[in-house]
Every structure is written in C-alpha cells, then in structure tokens.
Predict the 3D structure of the following.
Amino acid sequence: MDLNPIFFTAFASLAIAFALLVVLKKNPVASAFSLVLVFFCFAAMYAMLDAHLLAALQVLVYAGAIMVLFIFVIMLLAADVPSFDLGRSHVGLRIGSGAVSLVLLGLFVWAFRHTESFGAKGTLTAAKIESVGGNTQAISQLMFSDYLLPFELTSVLLLAGIVGAVAIAKRQNPRKEGSGS
Amino acid sequence: MMQVEPWLVLSFAATIFFIGLTGVFIRRNILVLLMCIELMLNAVNLTFVVFSRQLDSLAGQMSVFFIMTVAAAEAAVGLGLVIALFRTLRTVDTDQIQLLKE
C-alpha cells in the first residue's frame, strides 16, 4: 500500500497513545478530548488511504457532532469529577480482560500477517476512480444507484433516532409523578 | 520508498479495537463505556477502508458511511438514555444501576 511509512507510524502511535488515555484517564472530560484526537488520527488514515470523503465525514460527524454531544452530556450531568472507577474494578477482571485482549490481538495480527489473498478483486481500481472524477464522485454515484435503498433507510433510522433520543431524554422521573413504582 | 504492508494497518485497527474492548470491561463510568464503543466502531471502519482499498471495491467505504450514521444515532439515543438514568438514579456508575434488583 502506498502509505507513507513515516506518517503511518506517527499517526498510528498517536492514535494508540490517545486510545489508551481514553481508557485510563479518570476524568471523563480528559477521556473525551483524547477521543477527539483519536478521531483526527483516523481521519488522517482515511485521507492517506484515498478515502477522502470518509476523512471529511470523520472530522464532521465524529470529531464534530458526536464529540459535542458527549461533552455536552458530561457538562449537563456535571459528571466531570474524577471517578476512581478504574481502581474499583476487580483486579482479576482488569488483568484477565487485558490478557484476553492481548491474546486475541496476537491471534488477529497472526491471521492478518499470514493471509496471502484477501479475496476476489473488484473493478474500481485507483486509476478507474481517478477517471470518474475522484473518490467522492465515485462514492456518490454508487450511493445514488446501487445503494439507494439503504441510503433512504438511513434517513428513516436517523429520524427514529432523533424522536427516540428526545422521547427518552425528556421523560420525567416516573417516581415523582407517582405513575411508576 | 518503503511500503506499509496492509497487515500492519489492519493490526493497528485491531489494536484500537481491543483497547476499546478492554475499556468496556474495566471501566465503570457509563460515559466512558460509550466512548470505548465509539473507539471499537472506528477500528472496524478503518478495517473496512483498508479492505476496500485492497480489493479495488468501494463497497467497504459505503459500509463505513452507513456505520457512521448508525454510530451517530447510537450516540444520540445512548446519551439520551444516560440522561434519563442520571435523572432517576443520580449516578453514571454502572455498579449502582441495578433497578432490576430492587
């Protein structure tokens, strides 16, 4: 793959470091800001892999919309006090889950390393994508032809998500109303 | 120039995935749990993009597009649930969310 090894190493190590910070930081706000940086590293990866539309969407949707939502909720709940929940989890659970993750990761790396062929090749080579006007053009053409039905269903899903989020978050405490238990 | 092998990029994505998985196991703050889920989703997205590039097909990138939409909806509904839970229980700690026990 024609990734630049220097940039790949830099962004990969940055992303792994910040992903570890997301898990290990006690303060949820610190976790959230580390997560933003992980998202930016992923956007850089997408750009290097010639997925330009996805790189832009990654910054807009993940680093923009989703993270604003997270930080908004953290501030709304005043939950930004450092929680020592990491130290409270069972030591055996911490060591066990870390070990299981490492073993599974090793298995995955071994499998990726020893895979000769990834499967049947498609037709959209880099030159072909270039000839139809770039990555965004090619994806748009695909989105509004072969993937039109899933694309429309996505808008239904988003509508359901909006209605559901408002309905859940707006519901008053049933105990106060006396209608619940 | 030296080339970056695809398996290296895939291994990087798997590393991020398992960091997120470990986070889901060891953390107790429900907001951090949701963030770890986002980490795992991103790792899967990167895997899709690598395969899409390797196989000369844009199906993988279309999948990433749909996963992003689902992730956005999931974050909105999940955080709505967190707000509703916090309103009822005054906590974001998963150890204290045990309404079924009461």
